[in-house]
Amino acid sequence: MRPETLRPGHRLTLHRDGAEAYPRMLQAIRDAQQSVLLETYLFADDATGRRFADALAERAKAGIDVRILYDAVGSRTTDHAFFGDLRARGVKVVSFHPLVRWFAGLTFGRRNHRKLLVVDGRVAFVGGLNISREYASTADGGLGWRDTLVEIEGPCVLELQGTFLELWTRVRKKDPPLLSRSPAPVSEGARVLAVSSQHLRDRWEIARHYRHAIEQARERVWIASAYFLPSLRFSRRLRAARQRGVDVRLLVPGRTGFAPVLYAMQRLFTSHLLASMRVFEWPGPMMHAKTMVVDGTWSTVGSYNIDHLSGVHNYELIVVVCDADFGRRMTSMFEEDFARSREITRDTWRNRGWGRRILEHLSYQFRNVF
Q1: Which of 22, 163, 246, 267 is deepest in the core (most CB within 10 A)?
Q2: Per-residue pLDDT for 56 more than 50?
Q3: What's the domain count of the chain?
Q4: Sequence-distant (≥ 6) Cβ neighbours of residue 256 within 8 angstroms
């Protein structure tokens, strides 16, 4: 990683779950004066989705340029009438790789898994949260899924806006360019780098950043991943870090909506534990975060799962942050999550039944297609 690619002058706010993230996102949308760009894998027609839809439509009615880019597969359960209503209310809506083309095999496997909101070229939100009730707090009628999002102000916001517009123009070329003022850098602000995998040449870029950070680690590597099915190369980097005495910890979900994915991840627990890594299972509703912190100074938040689909097929987006203050906040968040989770030990894991082991082995064979 080249240090000069990290741009200084950013103000960062770390948001835990939809309970913190959604109100800030909605407020930013309501305050928009020029443009609102929303990119998401899933935009659901539920209470949460309608709350965002109303806020977006209100801004469009006020003459603001509002654009939504959603993935056709991720939002396949959302009725077309939902997006049709948004279009009728003045919102520009684009489906990424519509399902008809997908079933024809023309875009098989290439999905847009990114989650990004950019308002006025001034503030951006990057993380793992889709727009659906699963991520909303239980107090708001949601399911309270565990996830993380970072709010960004500073020069990197225009870069994130550019990544959105580049993908947007691939499927809708007639829209006029956005006119956004350049955000002022924050004095002594954090250094940030946005990394996307929307180009073929950049497909491995995110994985390279992860591996580089792990190779440089001297104290700790803490990873939260909703789908942790690393490549052999990635696993070797973690084992090498552990051999150097680095504290390697993994936070993974204890339940998912698709059991074979969970079994495939658990198939690797034995090798993690034998390498003296610590493995924690999130006990509550789905743990959907995709974050990492290294030595309390290098952090990343985004949509990237450490699995084959994110590494090879999906369009993903992360922000890399090199900042001690933000690293402390990330470390504190991890410590809270570890305290609430169940640690898997060698003794308890080796005592699981043979039926479970068989399911893990069979599921692992299909790890690259989940």
Answers
A1: 22
A2: yes
A3: 2
A4: 226, 262, 286
